[in-house]
Fold each of these.
Amino acid sequence: MVPEKNLKAILGKLKYSDDAKVIQQMTEQTEQVRARMADIKHKLVVMSGKGGVGKSMTTVNLALALARQGATVGVLDVDLNGPCVPRMLGLHGQSLTMTTEGAIPPVGPLGVKVASMDFFLDDASPVRWKGPMDVSPVWLGLMEMNVIREFLADAVWGELDFLLADLPPGAAADKPPVIAGFIPDLAGAIVVTTPSEVASDVVQKSVTYARDMGIKVLGIVENMSEYRCPSCGELNQLFEGNTEAMCEALDLPLLGRIPFDRKLARTFDKGAPLLDETYPTIQRYQEIAGRIRTLLDYKKVLAEKL
């Protein structure tokens, strides 16, 4: 979040007075975000520097895996232009419940709460930004960031064990880390990649940028590591990259590998998520969720000792 003194310094260089009381509004909004987030034990972001790696699928399945383990979980779908989490969880067509206390997210499978721009859009309606953004990408970025801050400030999550924020694709290397910076007491980031060398190259840059922004990266999830045959269940390699070497170079743990699973993909595509915890691919998500919890517990113990 932008410190108030920094914001004053920036606005002080402008030729115009702060008639809209931007500083006051942002300060109040920041305090509201802190109040909302105070009842959430672990705030995590799921990110990648590369689009098309299955980041939203990973977010949704990790949320369900944590819920199966008895945790209370929320998912914040931060992709404003291409929100898909509600559809994957069978919540498309629902909406936030507006109350005097704020916006209450609808509840999906296994009690997972979801907030998303999808709840404000018709089926084929894109997000259109009007005003000065039409001629200035700077204003467009500011508008998007303001909407995300409003989501964080207005959504009434209640007490949660985990909040997973599904960040937008890395169209710009700085966007995911900047958004992550809006979340107070962020526990860390989970980075999704595929074994593709193209994806790995971009993801490494994203991890470096996130670290430069002070974001702790917990580990890497390798998605589409193999292809699971829907008939016999046999696994075959899809790419020839080396995610383990990338993790070693970045000094990060490989949290787990998820195969491309047509059966699993089809269920989420139809808004009827597969919930059978005995299914092999679901078990892999359960294992990754367990490793994430272990890392967070270790981090907590280490902090207490220090």
Note: The longest strand covers residues 217-228.
Amino acid sequence: MGEKAVLIMVTTGGRDDAERLGEALVVERLAACCSIVPMVHSIYYWEGQLKREHEALLLIKTLESRAAAVQEFVRTHHDYDVPEILQIPIEGGSSAYLNWLEGQVAKAGQ
């Protein structure tokens, strides 16, 4: 593995939204894999109101060099005005999986 992998977490309005974003990110080779947790319960304030929402969580596995492009894609294609986008470095893991991840995202230039 030559390049650092990152995990980008994005909440969406539901499973269909998460699947739409995740599939597009993989097809565009911005991500090697996107996993969806179909139901999370989020509690937050929005415009002064306490909100309790059922959302889906999209887990995007990509390379650090593609993270800015992933975040821009999400901002452009997300239904929320202010989407939650959190980037976490991957410090370890299966070397075989991380090599596969790098190969999938690297194919973007091919």
Note: The two ends are 18 Å apart (CA to CA).
